[in-house]
């Protein structure tokens, strides 16, 4: 039987992750050449987003739901996320995404693994855990460049549809969405 971390450890990890996210977001806005750039997506959803994605918890009209090849076009970047259940180095099961971000901007693009969150079938949005092998982390991507790595979330055996959300900027109304079905 797989065991997860204690509730106290989860709260501590969540609090630390939230504090780290806030710090990185502020640093990214302060130092990124893209800080003042407009966030964009294809609002018509004719290119880079699924046309008929259906409804899901927390859906917005500006969301860009992943195409069948698991990619979205958000903020002049192509973001791919391939989802799977994997065991971390401690033996716990995680829901992880192998993420690739391709910068199609004309300037440097700042990325951060905290830009992605996960909503389980029941419950509140969760933040990533720090056990991913080859983690995405954060950094800058030159025009035409790529960044790739893994992002993982605790998995507690709950089957159903998970909603993964990629927000390129803090408080952005445009998000990339992956609808991940776990049996």
Commentary on this structure:
It is globular and about 40 Å long. The strands form three sheets. A four-stranded mixed β-sheet has the order 1-10-9-6, with no helix packed on it. The longest helix has 25 residues, at 7-31. The two termini are 17 Å apart. It has one helix at 7-31, and strands at residues 64-65, 71-74, 77-87, 93-103, 109-112, 116-119, 138-141, 146-154, 160-166, 176-182. A hairpin with a 5-residue loop joins strand 3 and strand 4 (93-103). With 183 residues, it is mostly beta strands. The protein has a single domain (7-182), classed as Immunoglobulin-like, CATH 2.60.40.1240. Residues 1-46 have low confidence and may be disordered.
Q: Secondary structure elements and their pairing?
A:
Blueprint: H1 7-31, E1 64-65, E2 71-74, E3 77-87, E4 93-103, E5 109-112, E6 116-119, E7 138-141, E8 146-154, E9 160-166, E10 176-182
Parallel strand pairs: 1-10
Antiparallel strand pairs: 2-3, 3-4, 4-8, 5-7, 6-9, 9-10
Radius of gyration: 16 Å
Oligomerization status of the protein chains: single chain
As for the number of domains, it is 1
Structural class by secondary-structure content: mainly beta
Report how far the terminal alpha carbons are from each other: 17 Å
- Under CATH, the topology is which? Immunoglobulin-like
What is the string of SSEs from the N terminus onward? Answer: HEEEEEEEEEE
The mean pLDDT is: 78
| Count of DSSP strands | 10
Helix content: 10-25%
Low-confidence stretches: 1-46
| The CATH class | Mainly Beta
Largest sheet: 4 strands, mixed
Determine the number of helices (DSSP H or I, runs of at least 4 residues): 1
């Amino acid at each position: 039987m797989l065991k997860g971390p204690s509730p106290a450890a989860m709260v501590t990890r969540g609090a630390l992750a939230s504090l780290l996210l806030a710090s990185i977001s502020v640093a990214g806005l302060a130092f990124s050449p893209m800080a003042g750039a407009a966030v964009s997506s294809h609002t018509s959803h004719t290119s880079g987003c699924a046309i008929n994605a259906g409804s899901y918890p927390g859906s917005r009209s500006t969301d860009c739901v992943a195409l069948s090849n698991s990619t979205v076009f958000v903020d002049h970047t192509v973001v791919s996320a391939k989802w799977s259940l994997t065991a971390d180095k401690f033996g716990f099961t995680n829901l992880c995404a192998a993420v690739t971000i391709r910068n199609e901007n004309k300037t440097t693009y700042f990325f951060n693994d905290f830009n992605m969150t996960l909503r389980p079938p029941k419950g509140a949005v969760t933040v990533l855990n720090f056990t991913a092998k080859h983690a995405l982390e954060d950094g800058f991507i030159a025009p035409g460049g790529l960044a790739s790595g893994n992002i993982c979330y605790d998995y507690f055996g709950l089957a159903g549809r998970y909603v993964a959300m990629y927000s390129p900027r803090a408080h952005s109304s445009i998000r990339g969405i992956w609808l991940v079905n776990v049996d």
